[in-house]
Amino acid sequence: MGQKPSLAKTINKYKVVLVGGPCVGKSCIFHRVLKNEYRSSSGVGVNIGLKSIEIDGGDTVVVELWDVPSIVEMKKDCQSEYLDACDAVIFVYSKTDASSLGHAMAYWNCIGNNVPAVVLKSKCDCVVEQLPDAEALTWLGNSRLDSFDVSAKENQGINVALKLLLFQMNPAPSITMEALE
What we know:
Blueprint: E1 13-20, H1 26-35, E2 47-54, E3 60-67, H2 80-83, E4 88-94, H3 100-111, E5 117-122, H4 134-143, E6 146-149, H5 158-169, H6 177-180
Parallel strand pairs: 1-3, 1-4, 4-5, 5-6
Antiparallel strand pairs: 2-3
């Protein structure tokens, strides 16, 4: 009697870390992604959760999402216990806090461009906007990162940004001429 072929499919798991300054909406984004609910309170400490997400094109991946505390003074070894072995980073800044894009820039300077990343401009449902300084805006333009206006409260833009990030990490196999013949 022969062995039955395995029907098990390997599902990739990716560690994705939310980073940004204090009170920019990281915990709200965390809860929106994992539980599809809005919570207005800020998180304290580290939150870690798992979510299965189907990427357009068919593959399902598991996201291990980390919501980590903010560190305003960034150092080269910043948050290494959180960022070690991460597969992607989501930089978060707030439309309502002019200094928050500077915090995202500080994280970028600490982390570098070694992992796939996107930038989320949170709280886009708010009427009030504080414009970041010219240096931070220049960084955002020069970083060449995909940037999204999002609202955890209104559930806008977060899923699109996350799916694009996951697609960048898990691209569909390329089609070769041999496969077409």
